[in-house]
Fold this sequence. Notes:
This protein is an alpha/beta fold. It contains twelve helices and 15 strands. It has an eight-stranded mixed β-sheet, sandwiched between helices. Strands 10-12-15-13 form a four-stranded antiparallel β-sheet. Strands 7-6-11 form a three-stranded antiparallel β-sheet, with no helix packed on it. β4 (about 140-145), α6 (about 150-160) and β5 form a beta-alpha-beta unit. α2 (about 40-55) runs parallel beside α8 (about 245-255), α5 packs parallel to α6 (about 150-160) and α10 crosses α12 (about 370-385). The two termini are about 40 Å apart. The model has no long low-confidence stretch (mean pLDDT about 95). Pyridoxal-5'-phosphate (PLP) binds next to α3.
Amino acid sequence: MGKAITQYPPIHLCVASMGGYEEKYVKEAFDCNWIAPLGPNVDAFEKSLEDYLGNGKHVAALSSGTAALHLALVLAGVQANDEVLCQSWTFSASANPIIYQGATPIFVDSEESTWNISPKLLEYAIEDRINKTGKKPKAIIAVDLYGMPAKWEELVEISKHYDIPLIEDAAEALGSTYKEGKCGTFGQYGVVSFNGNKMITTSGGGALISGSIEEKKKALYYSTQARELYPWYEHKRVGYNYRLSNICAGIGRGQMEVLEKHIEHHRNLNKLYKVLFEETEKITVHHNPSSLFKSNFWLTTIIFKERNDFEIAETVREYLASKNIESRPLWKPMHLQPVFKHAPHYGNGISDNLWHRGLCLPSGPKVSEEDVKWIATLIKEIIDC
Ligand SMILES: *Cc1c(COP(=O)(O)O)cnc(C)c1O
């Protein structure tokens, strides 16, 4: 007399999926007692990321993507009372480290095709800050939102023209490419995340990508309490405890072996969503603006075209939730967040107009094509198309 099963099995946005060798590398760490925030797994994980990213980049494995962003600001010389330009349409972790440094975030809105920072508005903001404060902003943080590459060619040009370091927040974009380059390699510093919900995971972790071995060494120095080369503990600067654990790096080593498989899966699901929503006038699936951009489609995102309010998106979200399917509103821009209400903002209305009329849909390695078909059917059913 068992109870009837009423609950559907859950479908999540993006959860961890192990390739098979992660436990072997973790066990190796146990076997040789490398239970520390350094060791052979950390070295091998960094090497494999460097090989993957190419372009002569150097990688420092850290405890989180947020830690990597913080160290990027430290290396860029950002100090109290400096200004840092930051893409407004992003997750708060892009902006929080600016506050850790006692600096002021200056938020810049996005352009429509990639949803990332508008090069035009960025240039305007730089000129305006120089006019208003007599001082150049100290750094630029641009994001590859949902895995979509930003307009890197123009952004790099602006960064060079004004001689302001560019930091690429590629936390969501491991595996995405723009032209021939991989996301994470376009700025002076790049950041990726290995949180549990990202393209690959170390349970929690991140990496700082830089252009020289000297910068990598500096990052490692700051990430291990800024210890000087003396037999005793000598400190000339304030450091952090940001290094990645050798246990977590073991998971990362195993995950690198399935990265390509994950990327292909995310892209296939995105293709399927696009086909399934092709006929519906009421929905657009966010897509690569041209063949130069190749998103990893970390999360497939859709926009409801009909209305400029929360109603449809929330109705759909609640309906999916009733079937045990996770979906999520798009990131709420930083210039609309209470915590940043005093920060200057250069707007063009694009993120204000879009963020509340869209949803992120299940896109991870545990999501099947059958799941996607069912999700699309449910969405079409509830919005009646
Ligand atoms: C996840 C994420 C981060 C932070 O990475 P953590 O590893 O979670 O600290 C930063 N920026 C963006 C855009 C993210 O999505």
